[in-house]
Protein backbone atom coordinates (compact mmCIF):
# COMPACT_ATOMS: atom_id res chain seq x y z
CA UNK A 1 0.00 0.00 0.00
CA UNK A 2 1.69 3.19 -1.22
CA UNK A 3 -0.03 5.25 1.46
CA UNK A 4 1.65 3.28 4.27
CA UNK A 5 5.05 3.60 2.57
CA UNK A 6 4.61 7.36 2.41
CA UNK A 7 3.47 7.53 6.03
CA UNK A 8 6.49 5.51 7.15
CA UNK A 9 8.76 8.08 5.59
CA UNK A 10 7.06 11.04 7.28
CA UNK A 11 8.79 10.81 10.64
CA UNK A 12 12.31 11.58 9.47
CA UNK A 13 11.10 14.36 7.18
CA UNK A 14 9.05 16.07 9.88
CA UNK A 15 11.89 15.80 12.39
CA UNK A 16 14.12 17.57 9.86
CA UNK A 17 11.43 20.24 9.47
CA UNK A 18 11.33 20.71 13.24
CA UNK A 19 15.11 21.00 13.36
CA UNK A 20 14.86 23.81 10.81
CA UNK A 21 12.12 25.58 12.80
CA UNK A 22 14.01 25.32 16.10
CA UNK A 23 15.88 28.38 17.34
CA UNK A 24 19.63 28.05 17.85
CA UNK A 25 19.61 30.74 20.53
CA UNK A 26 16.43 30.28 22.59
CA UNK A 27 15.31 26.84 23.79
CA UNK A 28 11.58 26.37 23.22
CA UNK A 29 11.26 28.90 20.43
CA UNK A 30 10.20 27.54 17.02
CA UNK A 31 9.51 29.51 13.86
CA UNK A 32 5.86 29.41 12.79
CA UNK A 33 6.35 29.18 9.02
CA UNK A 34 9.33 27.83 7.09
CA UNK A 35 10.68 31.21 5.98
CA UNK A 36 7.90 33.80 5.99
CA UNK A 37 7.49 34.79 9.65
CA UNK A 38 6.88 38.49 10.25
CA UNK A 39 8.36 38.29 13.77
CA UNK A 40 11.37 36.61 15.34
CA UNK A 41 12.48 35.40 18.76
CA UNK A 42 13.67 38.96 19.45
CA UNK A 43 10.00 40.01 19.58
CA UNK A 44 9.44 37.84 22.66
CA UNK A 45 6.63 35.83 21.15
CA UNK A 46 6.11 32.31 19.78
CA UNK A 47 3.95 30.56 22.38
CA UNK A 48 1.61 28.94 19.85
CA UNK A 49 4.38 27.57 17.63
CA UNK A 50 6.15 26.17 20.70
CA UNK A 51 3.05 24.19 21.68
CA UNK A 52 2.54 22.89 18.14
CA UNK A 53 6.12 21.63 18.20
CA UNK A 54 5.48 19.78 21.48
CA UNK A 55 2.42 18.12 19.96
CA UNK A 56 4.38 17.03 16.90
CA UNK A 57 7.15 15.47 19.02
CA UNK A 58 4.50 13.71 21.08
CA UNK A 59 2.67 12.24 18.07
CA UNK A 60 5.98 11.07 16.60
CA UNK A 61 6.73 9.40 19.95
CA UNK A 62 9.96 11.38 20.22
CA UNK A 63 9.43 13.28 23.49
CA UNK A 64 11.78 11.02 25.44
CA UNK A 65 14.59 11.57 22.94
CA UNK A 66 14.73 15.30 23.69
CA UNK A 67 17.71 16.42 25.75
CA UNK A 68 16.65 16.88 29.39
CA UNK A 69 18.15 20.36 29.75
CA UNK A 70 16.56 21.46 26.49
CA UNK A 71 13.19 20.12 27.60
CA UNK A 72 13.41 21.91 30.96
CA UNK A 73 14.33 25.16 29.22
CA UNK A 74 11.47 24.60 26.78
CA UNK A 75 9.02 24.20 29.67
CA UNK A 76 10.39 27.37 31.26
CA UNK A 77 9.93 29.21 27.96
CA UNK A 78 6.27 28.18 27.82
CA UNK A 79 5.64 29.06 31.45
CA UNK A 80 7.16 32.51 30.94
CA UNK A 81 3.92 33.43 29.12
CA UNK A 82 1.80 32.66 32.21
CA UNK A 83 -0.18 34.92 34.54
CA UNK A 84 -0.27 33.51 38.07
CA UNK A 85 -3.20 35.73 39.13
CA UNK A 86 -5.62 34.39 36.52
CA UNK A 87 -3.99 31.13 35.49
CA UNK A 88 -3.94 32.29 31.88
CA UNK A 89 -1.23 31.80 29.27
CA UNK A 90 -1.09 34.10 26.26
CA UNK A 91 1.19 35.83 23.82
CA UNK A 92 1.24 39.60 24.31
CA UNK A 93 2.22 40.16 20.70
CA UNK A 94 -0.89 38.33 19.46
CA UNK A 95 -3.07 40.41 21.80
CA UNK A 96 -1.43 43.63 20.62
CA UNK A 97 -1.88 42.82 16.94
CA UNK A 98 -5.61 42.09 17.36
CA UNK A 99 -6.42 44.92 19.80
CA UNK A 100 -7.95 47.35 17.30
CA UNK A 101 -10.01 44.68 15.53
CA UNK A 102 -11.40 43.39 18.84
CA UNK A 103 -12.45 46.87 19.93
CA UNK A 104 -14.15 47.64 16.61
CA UNK A 105 -16.08 44.36 16.70
CA UNK A 106 -17.03 44.87 20.35
CA UNK A 107 -18.64 48.25 19.65
CA UNK A 108 -20.14 47.10 16.36
CA UNK A 109 -21.85 44.09 17.94
CA UNK A 110 -22.38 45.68 21.37
CA UNK A 111 -20.72 42.60 22.79
CA UNK A 112 -17.70 43.34 24.98
CA UNK A 113 -16.97 39.78 26.12
CA UNK A 114 -13.80 39.71 24.00
CA UNK A 115 -12.77 43.33 24.46
CA UNK A 116 -9.61 42.27 26.32
CA UNK A 117 -8.95 39.14 24.26
CA UNK A 118 -10.56 36.68 26.66
CA UNK A 119 -11.50 34.26 23.87
CA UNK A 120 -7.90 33.99 22.68
CA UNK A 121 -6.53 33.77 26.23
CA UNK A 122 -8.86 30.90 27.16
CA UNK A 123 -8.13 28.91 24.01
CA UNK A 124 -4.38 29.48 24.26
CA UNK A 125 -4.35 28.49 27.93
CA UNK A 126 -5.97 25.17 27.13
CA UNK A 127 -3.46 24.58 24.35
CA UNK A 128 -0.59 25.41 26.71
CA UNK A 129 -1.81 23.00 29.39
CA UNK A 130 -1.90 20.19 26.83
CA UNK A 131 1.57 21.17 25.59
CA UNK A 132 2.92 20.99 29.11
CA UNK A 133 1.32 17.56 29.54
CA UNK A 134 3.01 16.41 26.30
CA UNK A 135 6.37 17.54 27.68
CA UNK A 136 5.82 15.70 30.97
CA UNK A 137 5.07 18.85 32.94
CA UNK A 138 1.95 20.66 34.23
CA UNK A 139 0.82 24.20 35.06
CA UNK A 140 1.80 25.68 38.40
CA UNK A 141 -1.57 27.25 39.18
CA UNK A 142 -5.24 26.64 38.35
CA UNK A 143 -7.16 28.40 35.62
CA UNK A 144 -9.47 30.83 37.38
CA UNK A 145 -11.49 32.40 34.56
CA UNK A 146 -14.28 29.82 34.42
CA UNK A 147 -17.79 29.68 35.91
CA UNK A 148 -17.90 28.69 39.58
CA UNK A 149 -21.54 27.61 39.95
CA UNK A 150 -24.52 26.40 37.94
CA UNK A 151 -25.96 29.89 37.39
CA UNK A 152 -22.66 31.09 35.93
CA UNK A 153 -22.47 28.01 33.71
CA UNK A 154 -25.97 28.65 32.38
CA UNK A 155 -25.04 32.26 31.60
CA UNK A 156 -21.83 31.03 29.96
CA UNK A 157 -23.87 28.84 27.59
CA UNK A 158 -26.40 31.57 26.80
CA UNK A 159 -23.73 34.09 25.84
CA UNK A 160 -22.34 31.76 23.17
CA UNK A 161 -23.56 32.07 19.58
CA UNK A 162 -25.02 28.65 18.85
CA UNK A 163 -25.98 29.65 15.31
CA UNK A 164 -22.21 29.70 14.69
CA UNK A 165 -21.60 26.59 16.77
CA UNK A 166 -17.95 25.90 15.92
CA UNK A 167 -16.84 28.67 18.26
CA UNK A 168 -19.57 28.00 20.83
CA UNK A 169 -18.74 24.31 21.08
CA UNK A 170 -15.06 25.14 21.37
CA UNK A 171 -15.77 27.18 24.51
CA UNK A 172 -17.82 24.35 26.02
CA UNK A 173 -14.85 22.06 25.36
CA UNK A 174 -12.59 24.53 27.16
CA UNK A 175 -14.99 24.63 30.09
CA UNK A 176 -15.01 20.85 30.47
CA UNK A 177 -11.23 20.72 30.09
CA UNK A 178 -10.56 23.23 32.87
CA UNK A 179 -13.23 21.93 35.26
CA UNK A 180 -11.77 18.43 34.92
CA UNK A 181 -8.09 19.35 35.10
CA UNK A 182 -8.51 21.92 37.88
CA UNK A 183 -10.08 19.08 39.83
CA UNK A 184 -7.28 16.63 39.04
CA UNK A 185 -4.37 19.00 39.47
CA UNK A 186 -5.54 21.37 42.18
CA UNK A 187 -8.20 19.38 44.07
CA UNK A 188 -11.13 21.55 43.00
CA UNK A 189 -14.45 19.86 43.70
CA UNK A 190 -15.94 20.22 40.21
CA UNK A 191 -17.73 16.93 39.50
CA UNK A 192 -21.18 18.39 40.17
CA UNK A 193 -20.45 21.24 37.76
CA UNK A 194 -19.15 18.82 35.12
CA UNK A 195 -22.37 16.83 35.36
CA UNK A 196 -24.39 20.03 35.06
CA UNK A 197 -22.50 21.01 31.90
CA UNK A 198 -23.25 17.61 30.35
CA UNK A 199 -26.94 17.87 31.20
CA UNK A 200 -27.20 21.42 29.91
CA UNK A 201 -25.29 20.56 26.75
CA UNK A 202 -27.97 18.03 25.76
CA UNK A 203 -30.30 20.97 25.06
CA UNK A 204 -28.16 21.88 22.05
CA UNK A 205 -27.77 18.50 20.37
CA UNK A 206 -29.80 17.95 17.22
CA UNK A 207 -31.68 14.67 16.85
CA UNK A 208 -31.59 15.23 13.09
CA UNK A 209 -27.84 15.04 12.50
CA UNK A 210 -26.26 14.54 15.96
CA UNK A 211 -24.34 17.81 16.12
CA UNK A 212 -24.67 20.60 18.68
CA UNK A 213 -26.13 23.92 17.51
CA UNK A 214 -29.25 26.09 17.28
CA UNK A 215 -30.94 27.45 14.17
CA UNK A 216 -32.12 26.19 10.80
CA UNK A 217 -29.46 27.52 8.41
CA UNK A 218 -26.24 26.32 10.01
CA UNK A 219 -23.69 25.25 7.34
CA UNK A 220 -22.61 21.62 7.33
CA UNK A 221 -18.95 22.44 8.03
CA UNK A 222 -19.99 24.42 11.13
CA UNK A 223 -21.97 21.42 12.38
CA UNK A 224 -19.02 19.09 11.80
CA UNK A 225 -16.52 21.35 13.53
CA UNK A 226 -18.93 21.92 16.42
CA UNK A 227 -19.30 18.17 16.90
CA UNK A 228 -15.53 17.74 16.90
CA UNK A 229 -15.09 20.34 19.66
CA UNK A 230 -17.77 18.68 21.78
CA UNK A 231 -16.33 15.20 21.22
CA UNK A 232 -12.89 16.42 22.21
CA UNK A 233 -14.35 18.05 25.33
CA UNK A 234 -16.10 14.81 26.25
CA UNK A 235 -12.90 12.83 25.73
CA UNK A 236 -11.14 15.24 28.08
CA UNK A 237 -13.37 14.08 30.93
CA UNK A 238 -13.10 10.47 29.73
CA UNK A 239 -16.65 10.28 28.37
CA UNK A 240 -16.63 8.37 25.09
CA UNK A 241 -20.32 7.73 24.45
CA UNK A 242 -22.91 10.22 23.25
CA UNK A 243 -26.30 10.06 21.46
CA UNK A 244 -26.77 9.80 17.70
CA UNK A 245 -23.26 8.76 16.58
CA UNK A 246 -24.77 7.20 13.44
CA UNK A 247 -26.27 10.57 12.46
CA UNK A 248 -22.87 12.20 12.87
CA UNK A 249 -21.24 9.56 10.68
CA UNK A 250 -23.75 10.30 7.92
CA UNK A 251 -23.16 14.04 8.28
CA UNK A 252 -19.38 13.63 7.95
CA UNK A 253 -19.51 11.23 5.01
CA UNK A 254 -21.86 13.33 2.89
CA UNK A 255 -20.52 16.86 3.46
CA UNK A 256 -18.02 18.34 0.99
CA UNK A 257 -14.55 19.22 2.28
CA UNK A 258 -13.35 22.71 2.98
CA UNK A 259 -9.69 22.61 2.08
CA UNK A 260 -7.75 23.51 5.21
CA UNK A 261 -6.19 21.67 8.14
CA UNK A 262 -8.95 22.23 10.69
CA UNK A 263 -11.88 21.24 8.48
CA UNK A 264 -10.16 18.07 7.24
CA UNK A 265 -8.75 16.85 10.56
CA UNK A 266 -11.86 17.69 12.58
CA UNK A 267 -13.97 15.43 10.37
CA UNK A 268 -11.50 12.57 10.74
CA UNK A 269 -11.60 13.05 14.52
CA UNK A 270 -15.40 12.74 14.62
CA UNK A 271 -15.49 9.62 12.46
CA UNK A 272 -12.95 7.95 14.73
CA UNK A 273 -14.89 9.07 17.83
CA UNK A 274 -18.10 7.58 16.44
CA UNK A 275 -16.39 4.34 15.40
CA UNK A 276 -15.40 3.80 19.04
CA UNK A 277 -19.06 3.44 20.04
CA UNK A 278 -20.82 2.05 16.95
CA UNK A 279 -20.04 -0.28 14.05
CA UNK A 280 -22.24 1.83 11.78
CA UNK A 281 -20.67 2.23 8.31
CA UNK A 282 -17.23 1.13 9.51
CA UNK A 283 -16.36 -0.02 5.99
CA UNK A 284 -17.27 3.39 4.57
CA UNK A 285 -15.29 5.11 7.33
CA UNK A 286 -12.19 3.08 6.45
CA UNK A 287 -12.63 3.89 2.77
CA UNK A 288 -12.98 7.55 3.70
CA UNK A 289 -9.82 7.35 5.82
CA UNK A 290 -7.82 5.90 2.91
CA UNK A 291 -8.98 8.73 0.63
CA UNK A 292 -8.15 11.24 3.35
CA UNK A 293 -4.48 10.16 3.36
CA UNK A 294 -4.10 11.33 -0.21
CA UNK A 295 -6.02 14.49 0.59
CA UNK A 296 -3.64 15.29 3.46
CA UNK A 297 -0.69 14.49 1.21
CA UNK A 298 -1.63 17.37 -1.09
CA UNK A 299 -0.68 19.75 1.72
CA UNK A 300 2.75 18.20 2.26
CA UNK A 301 5.90 19.93 1.02
CA UNK A 302 8.40 17.17 0.28
CA UNK A 303 11.49 19.37 0.08
CA UNK A 304 10.89 21.15 3.39
CA UNK A 305 9.34 18.16 5.20
CA UNK A 306 6.21 19.77 6.63
CA UNK A 307 2.55 20.50 5.88
CA UNK A 308 1.03 23.87 5.07
CA UNK A 309 -2.23 24.80 6.79
CA UNK A 310 -3.79 25.73 3.45
CA UNK A 311 -3.27 24.20 0.03
CA UNK A 312 -0.04 25.68 -1.36
CA UNK A 313 -0.03 28.37 1.32
CA UNK A 314 1.21 28.66 4.88
CA UNK A 315 -1.20 30.01 7.45
CA UNK A 316 -0.74 33.75 7.81
CA UNK A 317 -3.01 34.42 10.79
CA UNK A 318 -3.07 33.21 14.37
CA UNK A 319 -6.23 34.10 16.32
CA UNK A 320 -6.69 37.06 13.99
CA UNK A 321 -3.11 38.35 14.21
CA UNK A 322 -1.14 38.40 10.94
CA UNK A 323 2.05 36.53 11.76
CA UNK A 324 3.44 35.27 8.43
CA UNK A 325 3.57 36.16 4.73
CA UNK A 326 1.48 33.13 3.80
CA UNK A 327 4.03 31.79 1.31
CA UNK A 328 3.82 28.51 -0.59
CA UNK A 329 5.62 26.59 2.17
CA UNK A 330 4.87 24.54 5.29
CA UNK A 331 4.06 25.93 8.72
CA UNK A 332 4.23 24.32 12.14
CA UNK A 333 0.49 24.74 12.73
CA UNK A 334 -0.48 22.84 9.58
CA UNK A 335 2.16 20.19 10.29
CA UNK A 336 0.77 19.63 13.78
CA UNK A 337 -2.82 19.37 12.54
CA UNK A 338 -2.23 17.08 9.56
CA UNK A 339 0.11 14.80 11.49
CA UNK A 340 -2.59 14.48 14.15
CA UNK A 341 -5.15 13.62 11.49
CA UNK A 342 -2.86 11.01 9.97
CA UNK A 343 -2.25 9.47 13.39
CA UNK A 344 -6.02 9.11 13.80
CA UNK A 345 -6.32 7.64 10.30
CA UNK A 346 -3.63 5.08 11.09
CA UNK A 347 -5.70 4.08 14.15
CA UNK A 348 -8.87 3.74 12.05
CA UNK A 349 -7.07 1.58 9.48
CA UNK A 350 -5.26 -0.51 12.09
CA UNK A 351 -1.63 0.22 11.26
CA UNK A 352 -0.94 2.72 14.07
CA UNK A 353 1.42 0.28 15.85
CA UNK A 354 3.36 -0.26 12.64
CA UNK A 355 3.89 3.49 12.28
CA UNK A 356 4.49 4.15 15.97
CA UNK A 357 2.34 7.28 16.09
CA UNK A 358 1.00 8.34 19.49
CA UNK A 359 -2.49 9.81 19.61
CA UNK A 360 -2.44 13.10 21.57
CA UNK A 361 -5.17 12.24 24.05
CA UNK A 362 -2.87 12.74 27.02
CA UNK A 363 -4.43 14.30 30.11
CA UNK A 364 -3.21 14.57 33.66
Spatial strand sequence of the major β-sheet: 1-2
- Poorly predicted ranges (pLDDT <50, ≥5 residues)? none
* Bulk shape: globular
Q: Helix- and strand-based class?
A: mainly alpha
Secondary structure: helix percent: 55-70%
Counting DSSP H or I runs of 4 or more residues, the number of helices is 15
Q: What is the element string, with H for helices and E for strands?
A: HHHHEEHHHHHHHHHEEEEHH
| Sheet with the most strands, sense and barrel status | 2 strands, antiparallel
Give the tally of β-strands: 6
Domains (count): 1
Share of β-strand residues: under 5%
Mean pLDDT figure: 93
Q: Radius of gyration from the CA trace?
A: 20 Å
Distance separating the two termini:
37 Å
Question: What report would you give on this structure?
Answer:
This protein is globular. A hairpin with a 4-residue loop joins strand 1 (82-83) and strand 2. The chain has helices at residues 2-8, 10-21, 47-59, 68-79, 92-109, 118-134, 150-159, 165-186, 191-201, 220-236, 245-254, 261-275, 282-297, 332-349, 352-355; strands at residues 82-83, 88-89, 300-301, 306-307, 317-318, 321-322. 43% of the residues are buried. With 364 residues, it is mostly helical. Strands 1-2 form a two-stranded antiparallel sheet. It has one domain (2-145, 244-355).
